[in-house]
């Protein structure tokens, strides 16, 4: 199976290195698209076509296109074009999916191709598979999760060092865990996009990004962290969703929340992600894993690529999505306390 | 898709109720085999054929046979026969798999049918999928897990009440969490069988049950639990496996272990299962969920049935298994401390 990668940044290069590694049979990295391909060319990847022309990817014989350029456009259009040209697509792009999951999954299905996106939520934490495959035999009723590795790093670093938010952000940048502008991480819009993807696979609903109330961690001070700590708590950016299918009522928000120090979600450190999934029949299941970093995300991408290589004709049905009739935000603290 | 169920005990009846529930489209429970079928017949399941003759199942038009009779034989032979007669099989039977995973998965593959067994390990905790699908793009190097819900219940009940082991076992029986003879749970052979299945999917190795060192929790007293508690520890039955692929060296054992009270595996309560999976590239991932009980196991079975119904022609490759050259048991406590 020939593989093309769109985007040669932290994640794209980590994936390319894994694909070039001889221990993975039957996969061959043949094309890399990057706007700055001439500057990024890496001889260690061997006989790969480097291009700045995305059309060269669409026209190639790659069976799978891995999209890791990020952002809504042109990524969304390129995913669609790759599917239209008969390729299956693996993506880590939560923004493109948050703005087009229904359209893209339906289109993939119509094309008889696969669109897989484990890497878009939770890095190596296998939350998309857990919900869409493992809990297919149940009804998911709620999700409470830590979905942004950058804010987990910043908040746990503030706890450990007593540093200010800005100093902790600098430390995250130094380690490659934060963009130069981490606004999307801090203000919750990154986690919101991921929550929208989980709402689609867990509840079968289609929510727009603007419907999800988000509160930033921007205003948190070292004093807030210390004060929480004194009462046995830590602060985490929590993404929460609960759905009542009968009323088609969704409660969903992303916000900093004080959690008892030894609760499951509070135990996240560094760039960890964690999720609690409430199910009608099986009770609660929990997952954690590295939620950021090139290597962890590359594992999720590669697992999706391998699933396609193993069974190129596999049927991956598009989730049937309805619009919720009500979307409520962070109305009461008690909701949170129960959920975690 | 027509479904036949072999075995109408706690799990089989929980699954049958879910299948009879009108909210699951495209699945129809058509046959139930049970040795005592005439006594168990339940009119609420509607128009189902109840039989004491397993040949009636093989001759039926069921596309999926769910095997929950348990035990090695005749279950193993019946799984094989169902596959030979063109049916896909979903099983919760760790004993049959521990004694025949290589043969059965290879045979299923040759028949072009699916053999799925998420329910055989960890109940609703999706550990089989996590390892075989989600971590396919990584190399799993270690597993430390709580895999027996009955012993978790017994040990956490002893902690909470100060009761003796025997009294806690009685409490587990009362709640339907322990068999009349819970020897396989207490002595570790149940967890060993599950560990063998995980070793196959995680490391690609074929280990015999007798090669895994097991230590019973039988001798634990209320005083042991109390003494652990005083030093900030709890005792759990841990199933541990680590594999060095280069040396083909496996270290694997099941034993009661003292764990720091707030460590991930120590936090299991009631019938919970939990697992830490160490991976070469993605670091550690963790999972927990209800590991026992009819409803939780039925969810895992039903998710597997739905995967088959969604894509009856899906290719599920048999794991390619080698024999480890060395299998080591519980040699040093330090191994444990690192693993958890």
What does this structure look like?
The structure is a homodimer. Chain A is α/β, with parallel strands linked by helices and about 350 residues long. The first copy, chain A, is built from 14 helices and 13 strands. In chain A, strands 7, 8, 9, 10, 11, 12 and 13 form a 7-stranded mixed β-sheet that branches. The first copy, chain A, has a 6-stranded parallel β-sheet with strand order 3-2-1-4-5-6, sandwiched between helices. In chain A, helix 1 packs across helix 13, helix 4 packs parallel to helix 6 and helix 8 crosses helix 9. Chain A starts with a strand and ends with a helix. At the A-B interface, helix 7, strand 12 and helix 13 of A face helix 7, strand 12 and helix 13 of B.
Topology:
Two copies of one chain form a homodimer.
Chain A: E1 2-6, H1 10-20, E2 28-33, H2 37-40, E3 49-51, H3 54-58, E4 64-67, H4 75-84, E5 88-91, H5 94-98, H6 101-111, E6 115-116, H7 127-134, E7 140-146, H8 149-161, H9 165-174, H10 183-186, H11 189-203, E8 213-214, H12 222-230, E9 233-244, E10 249-260, E11 272-279, E12 283-290, H13 294-310, E13 326-328, H14 333-339
Parallel strand pairs in A: 1-2, 1-4, 2-3, 4-5, 5-6, 8-10, 10-13
Antiparallel strand pairs in A: 7-9, 7-11, 9-10, 11-12
Total beta-strand segments of chain A: 13
| Shape label of chain A | globular
Give the structural class of chain A.
alpha/beta
Number of helices of chain A: 14
**Alpha-carbon distance between the two ends of chain A:** 43 Å
Low-confidence stretches of chain A: 332-340
* SSE order of chain A: EHEHEHEHEHHEHEHHHHEHEEEEHEH
Mean pLDDT of chain A: 94
The largest sheet of chain A, given as strand count, sense and whether it forms a barrel, is: 7 strands, mixed
Largest interface: A-B, 46 and 46 residues
The fraction of residues in strands of chain A falls at: 15-25%
Helical content of chain A stands at: 25-40%
Radius of gyration of chain A: 20 Å
Oligomer: homodimer
């Amino acid at each position: 199976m020939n593989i093309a990668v769109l985007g040669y940044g932290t994640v794209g290069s980590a994936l390319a290195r894994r694909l070039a590694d001889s221990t993975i049979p039957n996969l061959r990295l043949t094309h890399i698209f990057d706007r700055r391909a001439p500057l990024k060319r890496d001889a260690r990847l061997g006989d790969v076509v480097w291009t700045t022309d995305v059309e060269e990817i669409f026209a190639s014989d790659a069976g799978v296109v891995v999209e890791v350029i990020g952002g809504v456009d042109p990524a969304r259009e390129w995913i669609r074009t790759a599917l239209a040209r008969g390729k299956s697509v693996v993506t880590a792009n939560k923004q493109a999916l948050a703005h087009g999951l229904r359209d893209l999954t339906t289109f993939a299905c119509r094309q008889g191709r696969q669109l897989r996106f484990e890497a878009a939520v939770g890095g190596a934490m296998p939350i998309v598979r857990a919900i869409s495959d493992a809990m297919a035999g149940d009804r998911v009723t709620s999700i409470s999760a830590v979905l942004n590795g950058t804010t987990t790093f910043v908040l746990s670093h503030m706890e450990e060092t007593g540093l200010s938010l800005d100093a902790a952000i600098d430390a995250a940048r130094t380690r490659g865990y934060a963009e130069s502008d981490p606004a999307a991480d801090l203000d919750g819009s990154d986690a919101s996009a991921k929550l929208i993807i989980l709402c689609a696979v867990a509840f079968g609903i289609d929510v727009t990004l603007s419907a999800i109330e988000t509160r930033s961690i921007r205003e948190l001070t070292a004093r807030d962290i210390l004060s929480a700590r004194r009462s046995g708590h830590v602060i985490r950016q929590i993404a929460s969703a609960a759905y009542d299918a009968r009323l088609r009522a969704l409660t969903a928000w992303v916000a900093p929340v004080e959690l008892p120090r030894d609760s499951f979600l509070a135990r996240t450190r560094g760039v960890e992600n964690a999720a609690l999934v409430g199910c009608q029949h099986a009770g609660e299941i929990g997952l954690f894993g590295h939620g950021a970093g090139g290597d962890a995300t590359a594992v999720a991408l590669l697992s999706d690529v391998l699933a396609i290589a193993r069974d190129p004709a596999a049927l991956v049905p598009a989730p049937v999505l309805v619009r919720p009739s009500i979307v409520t935000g962070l109305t009461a603290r008690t909701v949170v306390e129960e959920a975690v």
